[in-house]
Write a structure and sequence with these properties.
This protein has 157 residues and is α+β, with helices and mostly antiparallel strands. It is 32% helix and 17% strand. Strand 3 and strand 4 form a beta hairpin. The mean pLDDT is 95.
Length: 157
């Protein structure tokens, strides 16, 4: 059964027709065309589909689209301002913290969730915040360095 879903995505009210079994990931990618959020595993183990829901990092493959109304959802597409990358995105690029890039959107949003509540995270806190984001290409060292750099750029360090 399909229902009309209206929710706030990247600061805009968006409406789409979704099946009652659709996940938030399917709503974002298939119904709203926001393909920056990737599907890695479909069962919440890899964090590739991480988005922010009311500021908290959430695996979009685990949340039903029907749960989206009333929540503020931020995807990777909503992070940059115009042509200017967000400081976390800039730091990821500057440190070379990405290789294939498939997991990067989820890592960036997990980092944002952390830095929004903790401007001065320790290495251990950074590693804990991104622990749900599986990356098969990096050793996470550059990712941690990028998040530290972003914290400094945002005035935390």
């Amino acid at each position: 059964m399909k229902t009309l879903i209206t929710c706030t995505v990247n600061g805009e009210e968006r409406t789409a027709l979704a099946d009652t079994r659709d996940t938030l990931l399917e709503l974002l990618r298939d119904r709203l065309g926001l393909t920056g959020t990737k599907e890695g595993c479909g069962n919440g183990n890899c964090g590739t589909c991480t988005v922010l829901v009311d500021g908290a990092a959430v695996c979009a493959c685990l949340m039903l689209a029907q749960e989206a109304p009333g929540h503020d959802i931020l995807t990777i597409e909503g992070l940059a301002t115009g042509d200017a990358l967000h400081p976390i995105q800039q730091a990821i690029v500057a440190t070379g913290a990405t290789q294939c890039g498939f997991c990067t959107p989820g890592i960036v949003l997990s980092a944002k969730a952390l830095l929004d509540v903790n401007a001065l995270p320790t290495d251990a806190e950074i590693r804990h915040a991104i622990a749900g984001n599986l990356c098969r290409c990096t050793g996470y060292g550059k990712v941690v360095e990028a998040i530290q750099s972003a914290a400094a750029a945002l005035g935390g360090r």
